[in-house]
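Students often ask what a holo structure prediction actually looks like on paper. The answer is less mysterious than it sounds. You provide the chain, you provide the ligand, and the output is a string of discrete structure tokens encoding the 3D arrangement of the protein together with beta-D-glucopyranose.
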Amino acid sequence: MKRILFSLLCVCLVAFACTKSQTPQEKLTANDAKINEIIAQMTLEEKVEMLHSKTNMSSAGVERLGIADMNYADGPFGIREEGQPNGFMSAGWTLDSATYFPTGSALAATWSEDMAYKYGTGMGKEARLRGKDVILGPAVNIQRLPVGGRTYEYLSEDPMLSAALALFYTKGVQDEGTAVCIKHFAVNNQETNRGSVDVKIDERTLREIYLKPFERAIIEGGAMSVMPAYNKVNGDYCSENEHLLNEILRGEWGFKGMTVSDWGGTHSTMGAMLHGLNVQMTGSNYLGQPVIDSIATGALTEDQVDEKVRQILRVRFAIEPVPADVANTQMTSQPESQQIAREVAEKAIVLLKNENVLPIKSEVKKIAVIGQNAVLKTQSGGMGAGVKALYEVTPLEGITRRAEKAGIKVMYTPGYKNYPGRRWGPAPAEPNPLEAAAIDESADPELLQKAVELAQAADLVLFFGGTNKSIETEGSDRKDIKLPCGQEELLQAIAVANPNIVSVLISGGPTDLQILEPLSPAIVQGWWNGSEGGTALAEVLFGDIAPSGKLPFTFPRQLEDSPAYALGNFPGNNTGADLFTLMFRPDVIKMSPEERQKLIESLPKPISEYTERFYVGYRWFDTKVITPMYAFGHGLSYVNFNYTLDKAAVSGDKVKIAFQLTNEGDMDADEVVQLYVHRIDSQVEWPEKELKAFQRVSLKAGETRRIILEIPFDDLRYWNEETNAWDLEHGQLQLQLGAASDDIRCTAEVTI
Ligand code: BGC
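The corresponding structure tokens follow.
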């Protein structure tokens, strides 16, 4: 009896240990036994059908065995309009208008895990309404270049902030029964030559900066699928990169799901089959018939195919297919998600400067809204990340509605013509590089004159500058970060007529503010802020809520100050020729794999050197003592927050800091408290400081709260290139607590 009880106890303990230690990735293996039975019933042809696209946005299941197709949807800021089966052209549906959520840099400006989670749930729910299994997002690459075409899609220049938001976005989506496909893995930081560029990067920088957001979302969030990027990393395309996909992703991080190549980003049969790719999107020229042929010649085994199929089926089994008679029966955009979009937008807006102009004073009776960006809808454009929104409140609409309530007159004039951008027509006959937008137009004299007259007639000017989605877009990087369309000349003329100016920047990335800043007593970063962007902006301008966004990236004073430029690493030898565009040229599509390979070999081989290493963003500016225009983490409020240090100590394997935060103002407001670490007397090379913890705190007017921030030792480790492992350097740390990377309010020292 004793023995039976003992054995029972052992079984229970083992079972307990197993459940307890099961990682989010291991949960994906729950159906492996069933999956193996299914694989045993499949023909080789059926298996191979699963390894490539079926339509432009799906890959095949096995109808005969009751396995549904996998349906993908672009994200990451709203479920993309339904396209034709064979491409991105609209399918002309009426129920596929989605909620347009604030774009990536705006979400990141909230510095809120809670917002990222809710955002994910909104996206996940709308995906299911559309019958989608996998969202092609979040897009989490580090913003390395201020000119980056996808800066607006990505989150932050900081790995810790990006990783936290990537994790919570992932959890939000997957908790709604939709899978994420986190992208673009990895080091996809430029659009110039994105289809062919070879990124030369050292292992420490790779691990500490560029892989972090993926690592957290995969290990802690259980991200079910991953999209390898277009570019190469240290010699190999990401879609067949042994180090990235097999050694790190599957080996070290224990990834159990599937990888889906970026569209047109698969490059060979053997490379993909041996080095970690599951699904070729789109086309079947590599992972279709050539796989069957390779098995026939013995170059591949059917077991290798089975393993790929198993990984795909794990995701298929984890995600319940939406029944055909349920999908697309109601509008994609739902009020609950619209409310989330609004909340995120409200928390994203960053007050960069305020010389007592905002919130708009009661004396103001006439407002001149100047600038076409006040009426510009930002939902569509920019390629993959565009959204067909059910509605979008523009800044002018939001301001007008709110001003009416206060009996304020709003007058509008465009001031400039927006840069129309490239036309996305048929692919060019010649290998025409996707050029960076040439946006150096001068001001339009007639529009300028009207703007000056309007400014003269108003008490306050709201100047809307910034970029648009033809200037900041997937497929090309900006040539510079200057304000486009003659905006500087226009603002100079307006300032003479009426210096009472609030400049609102509608853009996804940073712009050069050297002319605008001295002419604007107040500056607001308004982002591409989703369906409710205009509503949120009006709430902030009129003081219904206090602004609380913080910059997720550095606004350099000039482009040349930023690290990749200062070191001549970008543009470097990057000419702009984009293999991606080439792959979609009609004559190239018709080529045999051999001809195509020959053509690829004949192309120039651009390289991007990352010799700035981990000195990305503020890590560079702070270490080199270069003052930016606005620092990472910067963002003002309408109230003052007081920080009083309580205690800093090491407790177990954590560093802890406790402090009192007081809202000294007369309105409720949020503050994002930021904790940076500076190393004292270190033997290892470190940047001047690094963000290691943060928290968004909501305080009532006059409220004080005790806050504790923690840094686990694991987050203090560095990648030791000698041992090829994470290492902890013991020694003294200076903790720098504050409201921005350049606004440190308290410091304390601890020893680890
Ligand atoms: C983009 C991806 C996108 C895919 C499908 C590619 O061009 O890089 O981010 O998900 O297209 O639209």
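DSSP finds 23 helices and 26 strands in the chain.
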